[in-house]
């Protein structure tokens, strides 16, 4: 038989469960907002794309904070530098790809 105090049932099963559920709820809302906007066509295409981009950036921050437990104040400097470097590389890859696609599109119809 195990020794258990009467207060054991009052404690949550996992200490970080509330944090993970909060992150999951935020990520779900940040996913449903763009899907809802696209499905209903409530906004013009330009504003819809801006909302999608904003929700994507906020969702990245939610994932870093709630699931990867990375914060500006508690994270070692090397980890922040690695995240910043990866962000710059992703920005260059996506920006470069968009630049090439728009340039090719312009050349095709010019």
Automatic annotation (TrEMBL):
Pfam families: COX4_pro. Its main location: membrane. Keywords: Cell membrane, Electron transport, Membrane, Oxidoreductase, Transmembrane, Transmembrane helix, Transport. Signal peptide: none annotated. InterPro entries: Cyt_c_oxidase_su4_prok, Cyt_o_ubiqinol_oxidase_su4, Cytochrome_c_oxidase_bac_sub4. It is a multi-pass membrane protein. Belongs to the cytochrome c oxidase bacterial subunit 4 family. Cytochrome bo(3) ubiquinol terminal oxidase is the component of the aerobic respiratory chain of E.coli that predominates when cells are grown at high aeration. Has proton pump activity across the membrane in addition to electron transfer, pumping 2 protons/electron. PANTHER family: CYTOCHROME BO(3) UBIQUINOL OXIDASE SUBUNIT 4. Heterooctamer of two A chains, two B chains, two C chains and two D chains. This is Cytochrome bo(3) ubiquinol oxidase subunit 4. It comes from Fodinicurvata halophila.
């Amino acid at each position: 038989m195990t020794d258990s105090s009467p207060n054991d049932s009052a404690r949550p099963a996992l200490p970080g469960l509330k944090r993970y559920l909060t992150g999951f709820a935020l990520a779900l809302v940040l996913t449903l907002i763009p899907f809802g906007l696209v499905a209903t066509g409530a906004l013009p295409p330009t504003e819809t794309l801006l909302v999608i981009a904003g929700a994507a950036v906020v969702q990245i921050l939610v994932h870093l904070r709630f699931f990867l437990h990375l914060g500006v104040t508690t994270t070692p400097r090397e980890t922040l530098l690695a995240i910043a470097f990866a962000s710059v590389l992703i920005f260059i890859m996506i920006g470069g790809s968009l630049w090439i696609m728009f340039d090719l599109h312009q050349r095709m119809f010019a």
